[in-house]
Amino acid sequence: MDLSIVIPLLNEEESLPELAAWIRSVMQTNHYSYEIIMIDDGSTDNSWKVIETLRQENNHIKGIKFQRNYGKSAALNEGFKAAQGDVVITMDADMQDSPDEIPELRKLIIEDGFDLVSGWKKVRYDNALTKNLPSKLFNATASKVSGIHLHDFNCGLKAYKKKVVKNIEVYGEMHRYIPLLAKWSGFRKITEKVVEHRPRKYGVTKFGWDRFVNGFLDLASIMFVGRFGKKPMHIFGLWGTIVFFIGFCIWIYLFIAKFFFATFSMTARPLFYVGLISLVIGTQLFLAGFLGELISRNATDRNHYLIEEKTGI
Question: Which pTM value belongs to this model?
Answer without folding.
Answer: 0.75
